[in-house]
Design brief:
The complex is a heterodimer of chains A (113) and B (237). With 113 residues, chain A is an all-alpha fold. Chain A has helices at residues 3-26, 32-59, 71-87, 91-109. Chain B has 237 residues and is an all-alpha fold. The chains are: A mainly alpha (113), B mainly alpha (237). Chains A and B meet through helix 1, helix 2, helix 3 and helix 4 of A and helix 2, helix 3, helix 4, helix 5 and helix 6 of B.
Chain lengths: 113, 237
């Protein structure tokens, strides 16, 4: 993607995101019914999107064309899930997962990370 | 109500945000450093940061740019990742909607996960509208400053981070951690499993179609499954 396209992309997403933020504030009063109806989908979307974004990137080596399973990444993912289950933050699970990734790679390769 | 009281609310908001910076800073570092790793110029990364003002959408966009996904898919995905802001918008609407446009538009831009979290605790909800507005303003502006500075630091450090650290792997891990926190019921867990398996099953499809199909499959599952279970339960009983 060239730079001009990227800027176009950023402006489009920026505008879209801003309109989402403004939506109910601007339409306050006339949207309660719509909000009630779309509540289910609004609730279902985040887990669906996050799972579709991260699961393949964790399970498979990247960049790749052969889609080879990467067990170290899967292990790091499991550590992240475990920590996230208790901490509720984003920071510590990511730190734990990365430490696990580095440690496991170091143990297997015998080289310093 | 005196202005000095409101100023106190503003600084209380700033003060309450400070501990959250420990979570914002590394996330911003990742957002900045990943942009550098993808070969983007500093002004582009900062432009993207200010325009998005949404870390997870920024990481999602990075991932999809890396995957050579088409323009429309990247825009739709990034905006959809931000759909939770619609919930925040609805939550803050009674507070922000009556304001003049010159206050309303900037405050809408400043809405964030952190602002939503801090401003909706019972202690805040008991306060007057004015107090809540100034508290929100304090939280939201300091959050915005903290985020932009964190990304800037990430951009500055970006080139000095070795490639074999696989820092880009923090992106899917961050999504995974967010995923865990969004799963609050068994239904949402099933939705995530269906979407995740779908994304694996469909990943060979062109134009990143697999991603979209996986999300649709997960959401449809979440819509129809409760009905199916209920009907099944009735026919059994």
């Amino acid at each position: 993607m060239d730079n001009l396209t990227l800027w176009g992309l950023f402006f489009a997403v920026g505008l879209g995101t801003y309109l989402v933020r403004l939506s109910f504030i601007q339409l306050h009063g006339s949207t309660q019914a719509l909000l009630e109806r779309s509540k289910t989908i609004l609730m279902l979307l985040p887990p669906a999107i996050l799972a579709a974004l991260c699961i393949p990137a964790i399970v498979f080596q990247r960049p790749t064309t052969e889609y080879q399973l990467d067990w170290i990444q899967i292990l790091a993912g499991l550590v992240t899930v475990l920590i996230a289950h208790f901490s509720r933050s984003v920071f510590w699970p990511v730190v734990g997962g990365m430490l696990c990734l580095w440690l496991a790679r170091w143990l297997i390769s015998g080289n310093a990370v | 109500m005196h202005f000095s009281n409101y100023r106190q609310q503003f600084w209380e908001g700033v003060r309450d945000l400070l501990p959250l910076v420990s979570g914002v800073l590394p996330f911003g570092l990742i957002a900045g450093a990943t942009g550098v790793a993808l070969g983007m110029s500093p002004e582009m990364i900062m432009g993207m940061t200010v325009l998005f003002y949404a870390g997870s959408a920024q990481l999602a966009a990075y991932q999809l740019i890396q995957d050579n996904a088409p323009f429309v898919i990247i825009v739709l995905t990034s905006v959809v990742v931000n759909l939770r802001f619609a919930i925040y918008s609805a939550t803050f609407a009674p507070l922000i909607a009556p304001l003049k446009a010159r206050y309303r538009y900037p405050l809408a831009y400043l809405l964030s996960d952190q602002a939503y979290g801090l401003c909706n605790v019972p202690e805040q909800l008991d306060r007057s509208t004015g107090e809540r507005l100034w508290y929100l303003t304090g939280v939201a502006t300091s959050m915005c400053v903290a985020w932009i500075l964190s990304v800037l630091l990430g951009v500055a450090l970006g080139t000095s981070i070795p490639a074999h650290w696989s820092l880009e792997f923090t992106i899917p891990l961050a999504f995974l951690a967010m995923l865990v926190s969004t799963i609050t019921s068994r239904l949402l867990f099933i939705v995530a499993v269906v979407a995740g398996l779908g994304a694996i099953a469909f990943q060979l499809l062109p134009y990143n179609l697999g991603f979209t199909l996986a999300v649709i499959a997960g959401v449809c599952c979440g819509i129809w499954l409760p009905g199916l279970v209920r009907r099944g339960g009735q026919s059994n009983g």
